[in-house]
């Protein structure tokens, strides 16, 4: 979204326009990734008393336009605060994310003038409509690297496979590869396939299948030592997930925490989310 060549029928404060004398609209945008969420920290500050007064009197707002061309995600964040945080699910953003900052009228403004207008506008007033752009700040491009994000997504390190021997009724695990292979009996495998595409059931499946597998993994790592597993992708992903919880995966950590405790930290307490999801689903059915 580039407004550098747009013409306005009224003065607009912008670095590439000469409608105002020596005024600044400072803005910045940063992102932080926490599990499955991208948190935007959006900053803005206007050094113009007239425009600042419009914000303080609820006539205008700072506005951030966030757009991801690759996923077609688009949203607008409006605020009167100089710093605001905005959360987005990580799957909605891939590649380049464009952020544009503005000050926008949120109400009609009559007889607007500003003491720092250039001489061409001295003594002239303007009637502005709701939605009019009053100032244009920075335009930023931030890249969301999908491959790096996938490293921290625990479900991506597991492969759920079907056992070919029908007589085998138990779940089995293979950790000697970049992905952890979880083998399910035929009936359980097909039931899992039916539920795996439902987002609301993911915490339940994690609690039933992934959590006990992680407990097994930590027990095996405790017995064999970390050195034999550090090259595997699943180990790097588990280590990264624990770092989010301020836990460094080393031999001291394995001795300090139980395997069940570490497994729950990796999955961000799946039992809590699973029970909440089941209660919510049960309540929704009762309301029908």
Report on this structure.
The protein has 288 residues and is an alpha+beta fold. It has two domains: 24-145, Sandwich (Immunoglobulin-like), CATH 2.60.40; 152-287, no CATH class. Helix content is 32%, strand content 31%. The chain is built from eight helices and twelve strands. The chain has helices at 49-56, 146-151, 186-195, 202-224, 233-244, 251-256, 259-266, 270-287, and strands spanning 24-34, 37-47, 60-68, 73-79, 83-89, 95-105, 109-112, 126-128, 133-144, 158-162, 172-174, 180-184. The strands form four sheets. The protein has a four-stranded antiparallel sheet with strand order 4-3-6-9. α4 crosses α7. The protein is elongated. It starts with 23 loop residues before the first strand and ends with a helix. Mean pLDDT is 86; it is low at 147-152.
Explain the layout of strands and helices.
Layout: E1 24-34, E2 37-47, H1 49-56, E3 60-68, E4 73-79, E5 83-89, E6 95-105, E7 109-112, E8 126-128, E9 133-144, H2 146-151, E10 158-162, E11 172-174, E12 180-184, H3 186-195, H4 202-224, H5 233-244, H6 251-256, H7 259-266, H8 270-287
Parallel strand pairs: 10-12
Antiparallel strand pairs: 1-2, 2-5, 3-4, 3-6, 6-9, 7-8, 11-12
Helix pairs in contact: 4-7, 4-8
């Amino acid at each position: 979204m580039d407004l550098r060549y747009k013409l306005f029928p009224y003065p607009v404060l912008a670095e590439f326009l000469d409608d105002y004398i020596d005024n600044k609209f400072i803005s910045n945008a940063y992102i932080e990734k926490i599990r499955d969420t991208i948190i935007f920290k959006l900053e803005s500050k206007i050094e113009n008393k007239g425009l600042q007064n419009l914000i303080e009197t609820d006539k205008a707002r700072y506005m951030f336009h966030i757009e991801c061309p690759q996923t077609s995600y688009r949203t607008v964040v409006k605020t009167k605060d100089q710093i605001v945080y905005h959360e987005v699910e990580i799957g909605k953003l891939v590649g380049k994310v464009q952020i544009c900052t503005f000050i926008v009228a949120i109400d009609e403004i009559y007889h607007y003038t500003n003491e720092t207008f250039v001489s061409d506008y001295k003594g002239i007033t303007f009637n502005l409509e709701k939605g009019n752009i009053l100032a244009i700040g920075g335009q930023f491009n931030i890249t969301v690297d999908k491959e790096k994000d996938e490293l921290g997504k625990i479900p991506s390190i597991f492969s759920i496979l079907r056992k070919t021997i029908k007589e085998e009724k138990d779940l089995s695990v293979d950790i000697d590869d970049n992905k952890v292979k979880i083998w399910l009996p035929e009936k359980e495998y097909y039931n899992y396939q039916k539920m795996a595409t439902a987002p609301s059931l993911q915490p339940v499946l994690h609690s039933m299948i992934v959590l006990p597998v992680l407990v097994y993994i930590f027990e095996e790592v405790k017995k064999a030592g970390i050195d034999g597993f550090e090259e595997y992708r699943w180990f790097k992903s588990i280590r990264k997930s624990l770092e989010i919880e301020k836990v460094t995966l080393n031999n001291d950590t394995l001795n300090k925490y139980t395997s069940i405790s570490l497994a729950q930290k990796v999955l961000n307490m799946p039992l809590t989310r699973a029970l909440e999801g089941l209660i919510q689903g049960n309540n929704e059915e009762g309301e029908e």
